[in-house]
Amino acid sequence: MATNLVRLLEGSIRSNNAGVAQRTLRVFSSQQQQSEHSAEDDEEFRVLNLRTVKQQARRRVIKKEVVPPPRTTHMPVDQDWTAVWSGPRSFHPASVPLPLRQGYTERGAAAPSKYANAELMKIPNFLHLTPPAIRQQCEAIKKFCTPWPKGLESEATWKAIFPVEVVTTDYCHSLPTIRHPEARRVTITLKLSDLKFDAHAKDKFLRLVGDRYNQETGVLTFVADRCPTRKQNYDYALYLLTACYHESFITEPWEASKSEADMEVYLFERNKAKLSAEAILNWNANGEKQAPSATYADSVEKLINEGENEYNIAKYKEEVLKMLKIAN
Amino acid sequence: MFRKQFGNLSRVSTHLSRNVLAARVASREAEMSTNAAPAEAATAPPVVNEFRTGVGNPGEHSDVQIGKFYTIPMEEKKQIFSGGGLPKQYEQQIKTFTEACLMVRSPALELLNYIKRADLSKPVVRYVLYGDNGVGKTLSMAHVLHYGMLNDFLLVHVPWAPNWMKRPKESANSASQEGFIDLPFDAAAWLVHFKTQNSKLLERLQLKTSKEYVWSKRESTPAGSSLIELVEHGIARIKYASETTAALISELKQLATAGQCKVMVAIDGYNAFFHPITRIFSDNKQRVSPDRITLTQPFLDITNYDWTNGVCILSVDKIAMTEGYMESYLPRYLLGKEGFEHLDPFVPVHVGNYTEKEFTSYIKYYLDRHWISKTQPGFEEQLKFMSNMNPYTLMQLVRGL
Amino acid sequence: MSLRVLSLNLLKNNRNFLQNAVRNSKGPGAQALAVAPYATQVTVQATPAAVQKQKVSKAMKAYLERAKEHDDFMKTQDLEFQIGKRHLANMMGADAETFTQEDIDEAIAYLFPSGLFDKRARPAMRSPEEVFPARKAAEFDETGRPFHSMFYTGKPNFFQLLHDIVEETNKLYDLEERMLRRGNKPDENQKLETAGFQLLPKDQLERVLVEHIADIEYQNFTNAMDRLISLPYSYKSKAFIERYLKPLIDQSKQLEVPKPKIDEQGRQYITTYECLRKTARADVTVRLPGTGKITINGQDISYFSSEECKEQLLFPLNYSEMLGKVDVEANVEGGGPSGQAGAIRWGIAMSLRSFVDQEMIESMRLAGLLTRDYRRRERKKYGQEGARRKYTWKKR
């Protein structure tokens, strides 16, 4: 029934269009119309013609090209839309069978229709990505998919096996070239906790990678875009990671000359705090030397490394009182 | 109706401050009356009620007295604090109330406990008072100073160290040390302060210098002369005041280590010694750092741990610093790396806002002194929340116009 | 009246493709489906009563022509819309029969994502009745004689309204006089309650009248209505007055007090977001069983150094006698100290509504605590020293 109705509506539109065409025709053939009027309406004022018919200037009739009706009028309502609008394309009023309107108007006026409406062309459209189109394309590329490997169902499992994440971007655009300068960029990320270090190597590694390491998230990021192709960039990024890792395990001779100012963390053993504490503990003592307790050393290190707060200060105070033997 | 209510409430604080005028008149009358009969006031036994304690000796204070006021006798107050040591506004308040009252608060008690318990034959213990602005670090120190004076400690007291770095009376190039700056007037003023605080004790102890000090070709202080002579020389010859201070402090260290005397070092605004710059200009119009000032050295020296028979009470304060170094009131931040290493290991003592008990006690004290005279219902609550129980803010809120 | 005439006349006069279509389609169901929309569509616009053989004036003829054209146009538009709807349903893979206007809007927003700020400027597909504003039907008969006695004022509906108002007023005057003579007094209980209502704004009144009116004419309307409402017996013409009244929504919305929520510690709390004052903005949380703890950006009340700001902050708590009974947490940014304090004050007052009784809320409202302070910094003017101050004038 629906199709019936549609056909009916189409017909009516067509007849209506024909009517419009006729009317315009009638307007253009003014003489004929005049005679009609005079026949039908006898109370018409007679016009006093001083000039003869010949003297009357002939008004030039402007010939207009006959514009065919938009093809939307021929579209059946159950057509395959994906065939009509198969790819991204800017809006065309005669191809989209929707009575769209866009534009802001003062109150009392209708918004401009879709014909000759540049605003509709300016905005992007998703006419090629309607839900049926997406479904259809997914169906089509399904045959290229391979099954998901067994044993890698959850993110935790595959993260453990493949800690390195490689991010590349493919660009799809309408230039004559298919290349895009950004397509060569390769970003590899991994968690620092996935690498195994000793204390020295970790320190050196972090110094080597510099700001490629994010302190807050604990993620290492290498970005390579110097080489012309993606493959080279990928190799280079992996090389960087490998080289930094192995380099960090090498202890150079000059590393022994690391001074206090170069230290990244405060160590009780290396600082004046230890000397002072020892001197106070062994005041006037001749026999065996007393060493400051490990808890005291810990509290000083925490105070400086973690930064001050009420808790750390209180802990420090407690330890000092214990060491100086003035605790309750 | 609401407008009336509105007006009343918003004007509470102005009422408070306006009443101050009346309070002042009252207090002035009271002052006059005490002047008329000073002997009676002196001999009268101290008043004891819910916010006052009769125990005048800080050594006997214990947790029972927390939140209560004790009175420092006027002559003792004069001896200890005539050269500074109490905040200016507090000094004014003492004058208005005609009595030097201090509240017994837990930080001071804690300090006294430590001092009593500590072994004096061990190297000196450094106590660092820290806390936000206006919480009573200086007054806690004053409390301990009073204890020190009564217990025969020689007081080495710097009322406000940043004064030397921020607004010195005069600066001159040091004669003895190349590239150093002398603050002769400030050093002499400190010597006078030292003398007023300790002259009685010095006379009693009869301390002697250990070596000869040669100031110039003609002037010298021979070995074996008394410390008072040394101090008086510094006061008389202002040019050598800085060097005299250094000499005095090294002598004190030696004497204390030898067990001839006990020394209590109290320096307020100690972190000023570790501030990156001072406001003093050198000859080449550049700001000098505190370690180029001759006065700094002896006081850093005496806060070191390499001597015995003494106690160091230091306070670190945000306002001892300048703009850009005032983010936190915690000691490690204020002292910096250098200062922390110099003092480590020290005992940090936190001074905080009033507790509920202390606050009510203080309000009662103000009411007793007729400082707050008009009291609408709920004025205490309002004061409490307006001041957040911060001592200084409370004092400011109820201050005179 | 007009409606009835017009629908009749549509069926009679316009024997066009619609009827043909109905005849062609062989089911009565289709007829119902097709006719129904048109019957409702022609509410205001159409040709007047049946054109008879008698003399037809020129104006009438022109009007008839225009009306017919309009009808045709609307019909075409409607057909296009119906077809477009089916097309859209087809595109989106939905059932055309159950495709509603909401579905259309959603689909258009998906297909044509426009970021234009004004929603009215975005692409849309709506039924032509909504798109094309209603027009007046014929105001005169086929001989050119106007229906309405005030036709020649140009705004017959408006002046008719004014006339009605005056008529009502006179009626009430008469009533009052009669009642006075009888010694009766107006019933106080029945008094017309207009608090929370306002007269129709100009644009809405224009829509009701289908006429454009000038500002001064609108003012005449409001004056006349105000006079009518102020009469002691105005409740007698309640029905008439209420046609031109509109409830004020904003106020009743503000009077709604939010219910407190419960946090992890089992305390009641209310968070007020968007507390604004000058350029400061804050969000304030008030928790009910509390000790009076105030936290501003992680600091206590000493966040504000000046006394005035602290007073501002504590005022609502003090006023509602909740000082020391609730905890306040505020996050504030932007602006200066007084703006921030004002923003937090407003937030505290708004949050406290949930914890105090109705009487106190009213009292707080009267004290101005619940009123947003909209004052902003006034700009500096050129040729002046500041916003208002002029440069010092010196004779020479």
From TrEMBL, chain A:
- Please identify the protein, giving its name as recorded: Small ribosomal subunit protein mS35 mitochondrial conserved domain-containing protein
Output the Gene Ontology terms for molecular function.
structural constituent of ribosome
* GO terms classed as biological process: mitochondrial translation
InterPro entries in the record, alphabetically?
A: Ribosomal_mS35_mit, Ribosomal_mS35_mt
What are the transmembrane regions?
none
Pfam families linked to this entry: MRP-S28
Query: So which domain of life are we looking at?
Result: Eukaryota
Q: What does UniProt give as GO cellular component?
A: mitochondrial small ribosomal subunit
Species, as recorded: Drosophila mojavensis (Fruit fly)
Annotated Small ribosomal subunit protein mS35 mitochondrial conserved domain ranges read: 179-248
Q: Which residues form a coiled coil?
A: none
UniProtKB/TrEMBL annotation, chain B:
Cellular localisation: Mitochondrion
GO MF annotation list:
structural constituent of ribosome
Any Pfam family hit: DAP3
Recorded superkingdom: Eukaryota
Read off the InterPro entries from this record.
Answer: Ribosomal_mS29, Ribosomal_mS29_met
Task: Print the keywords alphabetically.
Answer: Mitochondrion, Ribonucleoprotein, Ribosomal protein, Transit peptide
Q: Give the UniProt record's GO annotations in the biological process aspect.
A: apoptotic process
- GO CC terms for this protein? mitochondrial small ribosomal subunit
Say which family it is in: Belongs to the mitochondrion-specific ribosomal protein mS29 family.
The name under which this protein is listed is: Small ribosomal subunit protein mS29
Question: Which organism does this record belong to?
Answer: Drosophila mojavensis
The encoding gene is: Dmoj\GI18979
TrEMBL record, chain C:
Q: Which Pfam families match?
A: Ribosomal_S9
What does UniProt give as GO cellular component? mitochondrial inner membrane; mitochondrial small ribosomal subunit
Molecular-function GO terms, alphabetical: RNA binding; structural constituent of ribosome
Read off the InterPro entries from this record. Ribosomal_Su5_D2-typ_SF (IPR020568), Ribosomal_uS9 (IPR000754), Ribsml_uS5_D2-typ_fold_subgr (IPR014721)
Q: What's an example GO BP annotation here?
A: translation
Keywords in alphabetical order, please. Mitochondrion, Ribonucleoprotein, Ribosomal protein, Transit peptide
**Principal location listed in the UniProt entry:** mitochondrion
Is Protease found in the keyword set? no
| Keyword Transferase found | no
Q: Where in the cell is it found?
A: Mitochondrion
Q: Which domain of life is it from?
A: Eukaryota
- The leader peptide range reads none
Q: Which family does it belong to?
A: Belongs to the universal ribosomal protein uS9 family.
Q: What is this protein called?
A: Small ribosomal subunit protein uS9m
- Native source species: Drosophila mojavensis (Fruit fly)
